Amino acid sequence: MYQDKTLVCKDCGQEFVFTAGEQEFYAERGFENEPQRCKACRMARKGGNHGGGERQMYDAVCAECGKPCKVPFQPRDDRPVYCSDCFRNRR
Ligand SMILES: [Zn+2]
Ligand SMILES: [Zn+2]
Questions:
Q1: H-run or E-run covering 20
Q2: Which of 26, 41, 68, 78 is disulfide-compatible with 37, CB 3.0–4.6 A?
Q3: Ligand lying nearest the CA atom of residue 11
Q4: Residue 49: per-residue pLDDT
Q5: Residue 2 Cα, ligand 1 centroid: separation in angstroms?
Q6: Which pLDDT tens digit goes with each residue over 40-75?
Q7: Would you say 18 and 5 are in contact if contact means Cβ atoms under 8 Å apart?
């Protein structure tokens, strides 16, 4: 019932295919708008500046339990860093 459709990306101007499967998916969710951007541009927007969608993480040591952990910001000596478990327990 759906057919592949060729759309033009708003960001890069490249043509991309809005596949029958995607159209069905959109219809199921009740989305009325067709996608405006190709997959690459959509991914780029989601991922921000780091590309690939991976956020830069820094190694740190939890000030509470001493476990090594990763945090999404550069740890500083004057600010304690907590692992996700301890961070949650503090609230
Ligand atoms: Zn594009
Ligand atoms: Zn901890």
A1: helix 20-29
A2: 41
A3: 1
A4: 56
A5: 23
A6: 998 888 765 554 556 788 899 999 999 999 888 888
A7: yes
